[in-house]
């Protein structure tokens, strides 16, 4: 197909995420990607300010990641994980446990971040049912996002999230207010009250540590995460931390939980795990969780994705984590953070801008009203940058390999996009 034919067919027949069918606006055809740049069908080059939804932390067409997939492809592309195992999965599990907070000892591989959260929820519920106790609910905080499958949707923000259309068919959970940006004794008391009131029916607590991602790109004080850990301990609940967006250095620490010095009972990882090459995620847990689920002997953990522990994905994940270990990613992220903070400061005083904030390799311009996605993207693309705004957010999560000049172009594009608000 010609580029025009491709886009015409795409618009009429290919359903894209969070979009109507047929599409109201044409998508942009990408024909190649290298480093931090995407090349469109018409030859336009764009700096990818999104890291392909926060996953491509090493950029595109990386020779080490390419080689890992090619090497594994010559051995086997896939094999079922039921009753079988293979070196890439075992080595990846060992690497993840070496990196995970102390006390995390078990790995369940999933095929997407959403599925890893589904598994975490199942773990929490089945942990209690193995004890003969029915605790069907979780406590979480407003402003959160955990995925698009049904279990996940039920613990996303029920009002301002993306899933309000399904509220009447989702499981009912307990929601605390959004965690504040700073320490707040009144908020702590409210958490204490809610957990005490509902502890008898709660299997656990689930939250994104420190950074709330697609629910609003909000950052909150580590003290609130420590409060959740304390309350889980006091009431015998499991603490689930969703590190899918925050894991592998995005917030400036290897794990979001590291900002607070807490260890979860269950932890979800994904996105940057494979360096953006393939879909893979994992749900990690402690000995106590695994033993609690298995002790009754009634049923194993009832989940098993077809592509669980896919060898290609496991091999490229190992290579991605190896690159992370070899590079000074902390300095890279700090440099990006400084560049984002300086470059976005201009937007703070612009009409229509409600807030500007940065955390690690995350930069956010929050607007007073929902943005016109097409107008914002056009302004960013005019500056040679790809952004994907949503709601009241113009934001970036660039690859860690982005240079100061490239970060400067991203912030220039974001400020130009912010000017369109007026």
UniProtKB/TrEMBL annotation:
EC annotation from Swiss-Prot or TrEMBL: 2.6.1.62
Role, per record: Catalyzes the transfer of the alpha-amino group from S-adenosyl-L-methionine (SAM) to 7-keto-8-aminopelargonic acid (KAPA) to form 7,8-diaminopelargonic acid (DAPA). It is the only aminotransferase known to utilize SAM as an amino donor.
Organism: Actinocorallia aurantiaca
One Pfam assignment: Aminotran_3
Keyword Thylakoid included in the entry's annotation: no
Subcellular location per the Swiss-Prot or TrEMBL entry: Cytoplasm
Source domain of life: Bacteria
Family as reported in the entry's similarity comment: Belongs to the class-III pyridoxal-phosphate-dependent aminotransferase family. BioA subfamily.
Record's protein name: Adenosylmethionine-8-amino-7-oxononanoate aminotransferase
Binding site for pyridoxal 5'-phosphate: 113-114, 242, 305-306
Catalytic activity: (8S)-8-amino-7-oxononanoate + S-adenosyl-L-methionine = S-adenosyl-4-methylsulfanyl-2-oxobutanoate + (7R,8S)-7,8-diammoniononanoate
Pathway the protein acts in: Cofactor biosynthesis; biotin biosynthesis; 7,8-diaminononanoate from 8-amino-7-oxononanoate (SAM route): step 1/1
Assigned keywords, A-Z: Aminotransferase, Biotin biosynthesis, Cytoplasm, Pyridoxal phosphate, S-adenosyl-L-methionine, Transferase
Marked site positions, Participates in the substrate recognition with KAPA and in a stacking interaction with the adenine ring of SAM: 18
